């Protein structure tokens, strides 16, 4: 039996995915999450085989959540669902070891195949998704300094940057991450130094360019 956690901030979407997966005899849904942070906590506690997660999640998006799960040393395979097939997201997902990347319009039998393939440690991409290896070759030839700087951020720094981009204050960010305001201020300063910017609008542009936040799901 493949044990699965569902993570999406829209209840109706989760309900639809659950309805599909419950028809499979070899898949069992063990929990649901409404944001990336909750998904990470559930993976840590329940150790599912597969996490099916929307990429556009609040507080901690799907890619950042997958990165934290990888850093935990978890064997849980992550399958991401997205409305977007752009190269930036595919490259980031590949970098953090995501096993499946599907467009949301592919939430049919294709999702069942992706879960089964991911459970075996293999990768599955929707046919419309560009090959991440080809994207990496392209990035190697077109050396984007801004992208390179973003890749050098730690998982915590990207988490703080996402919360800044979502409009949270230092105090609110500190509360969400259970850190001191002083620590958040240090992370914010480190972000500006690493990204070579000196104001909030510049930070936000980098967050949007690297798809830490989404205007739609």
Q: How would you describe the overall organization of this protein?
A:
With 217 residues, the chain is α/β, with parallel strands linked by helices. The protein folds into 2 domains: 2-135, Response regulator (Rossmann fold, 3-Layer(aba) Sandwich), CATH 3.40.50; 145-209, Arc Repressor Mutant, subunit A, CATH 1.10.10.10. Helix content is 52%, strand content 14%. It contains 11 helices and 6 strands. The chain has helices at 11-21, 36-46, 62-71, 87-95, 109-119, 132-141, 145-151, 155-165, 170-177, 181-195, 200-209; strands spanning 2-7, 27-33, 50-54, 77-82, 100-103, 124-125. A 6-stranded parallel beta sheet has the order 2-1-3-4-5-6, with helices on both faces. Helix 4 (87-95) links the parallel strand 4 and strand 5. Helix 4 (87-95) crosses helix 6, helix 8 (155-165) crosses helix 11 (200-209) and helix 9 (170-177) crosses helix 10 (181-195). It is globular and about 55 Å long.
Report the C-alpha radius of gyration, rounded: 17 Å
Shape: globular
Strand elements, count: 6
**Second-tier CATH architecture of the largest domain:** 3-Layer(aba) Sandwich
Mean pLDDT: 88
